[in-house]
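fyi for ur records
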Amino acid sequence: MPMIPLYPLSRDLVLVGGGHAHALALRMWGMKPLAGARLTLINPGPMAPYSGMLPGYIAGHYSRDALDIDLVKLARFAGARLIMAPATGIDPVAKTITVQGRGDIAYDVASIDVGIHAQMPNIEGFAEHAIGAKPLDTYADQWARFVIRAKAGEVAPKVAVIGGGVAGSELSLAMAHALHNAGVTPEITVIEAGPRITARTEAAEEFLLGAMRDLGVVPMTLAKVLSIHGGGILLADGRMVESQFTVGAAGAFAHKWLAQAALPTTKDGFVRTNAQLLVEGFEDLFAVGDCAEINDTPRPKAGVFAVRAAPVLAHNLRATLAGRALKAFRPQKDYLKLVSLGEKRAIVEKWGHAKAGAALWRWKDRIDQKFMEQFRSLPAMATADAPREVALGDGLHQPLCGGCGSKVGPQTLSAALQEMPRIGRSDVLSGPGDDAAILRTGTVTQVLTTDHLRAFTDDYGLMARITAVHALGDIWAMGAAPQSALLSVTLPRMSEALLARTMAEILREAGAVVSAAGAEIVGGHSTMGAEMTLGLTLTGLLDAAPITNAGAKVGDALILTRPIGSGTILAAEMQSKASGPDVAEVLQSMARSQGDVAEILQGAHAMTDVTGFGLAGHLMAICRASDVAAELDLAAVPIYRGALELAQSGHRSTIYQANADAAPVFGAEGARGALLHDPQTSGGMLAAVAAAEADGLVAQLRAKGHAAAVIGRVIRGTPSLSTLR
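which gave:
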């Protein structure tokens, strides 16, 4: 669930990039947030790799989990909304950040910490046949795949590193060690244009060269790269260096979008700042880390400076928002440099002196682990004291979930509907129970539905997309074509400027989904309240008979088009227990349209979208309407990554127990059985189709990228659910 602000929101603080300084500033913000400020983090994905542990990961000493800062958990702790998409531009005059696929995000105060890249566009063939050592996550992922292929004998273990500086040397040793451990003999070449491997001291260089000899890494100096090809590197003197994995580590390059922005930059495209870390000429825009350069005190591109700058940045961001004085950042002239040597040995170098040994690697490891521990074990912040005495109840202690996890239970809702008066209009062709009401106006048959969601993310645009897809599911499930929509918006109290920004973002993203489905937003309603709630009321047009819950036939196969487990993952995310990549995958899936699914399944005998009452609850609705029973193949039901483990550890959504009581599944036990009752937001379509057509339909759905599966069958019997024996 999003954080509920206790004070009206009045200022937007936007952090662009999840670099080290921003990660630390977010942690500090979470320890002491500023009332009235809305904090946003924009980053390409849910994780931010820590550069200090990259060589250890490449060598195989660390897992990928050990390398990454989980920005989803960090944003939850900081009370920040996280937009998981790359920034592609900035307008410092209009004060907007352009985000890929999301348009412009406005700010009052912003900070940039997007790091650098090591792509080498001036070398022919680099983009097609090589990879930069930065961004770290891209390099790390491709390296992991290469090691697997080399170990399997699918590719020769021939590697080339362009750049013989400390970074290139360190990575070459790490890759050599990893390949040795994989059981293959590496052939690694370090290509350096200068006359020597460029360590900062001769003593450090000797240690590096010795480690290279031990691991079979060949340094090649006075070698200028002319072009890169699929099988290797062509040098200016005509020599060819064979390589199946080529890494660029010969410099730091500014991101193109940043270098092209209307910002003061160095000749290399790095943003110029003053000692207060403010971008030169601006009083509301900061830049820090490798993407920036302080005018009076330029320093090498090293993570230590970003870490040291973080407290000053955190102070200055707050001070700018609150109208207080700023502090200056004074970077040290020199810093301790710890360089790993592939194996668990390292060099330490400072003030022109160097030493090497295993003890130094352990020291480096302790420093790195201490840094990462700040994000692995975020402190439990003080909450409002629980009342000393409460009225008797039935255990309503779990925080209320968002999305469909906050729905009223199925039995409670059904009982209330039974008491609802009806006048029996002839143009209303259905009553409560199906996905949408069926209406007749003259010769036109129309369907009508409404859906509202309690927000589970502060990313307003993403929430709007998910809400629209979720609401459209009822129209698609009936076999109708979306026609019109009314949008209902409840927002926390905020200033007029923030209201305008937020409404524009919600309307833009919801409108994009509704328009793509062929419908029009024709109006709606807005208000302010305690928290964000979004809803849509939709109409759709039918060209043929509607697909309802009734119609399932004995022998039909049951198809599910989307995994289950979103409610469990979102419930765990509220407690910072779900992993960032798992949360990101669920959110991305929920925001994807299912209009193409409806087209493929238009011949279904019965169909519904799986939402708040869970897979079992919605399948039971089909069984009751069709007077049949169903058997589920529990192992065939697709489950979101991470959901099974969270269910095994006891995570449940708020409505879980009510769902389980309303639609028991005989024979379903354990975590997989529990997930059958997990409420889904923007869940998949559940369709009963002719058994002979099922495999072909699933193949069509998978070809479109949907994780569809045949999960069971319709059988003769009183309405009930069981697992296949």
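Residues 496-516 form the longest helix (21 residues). thats all i got for now
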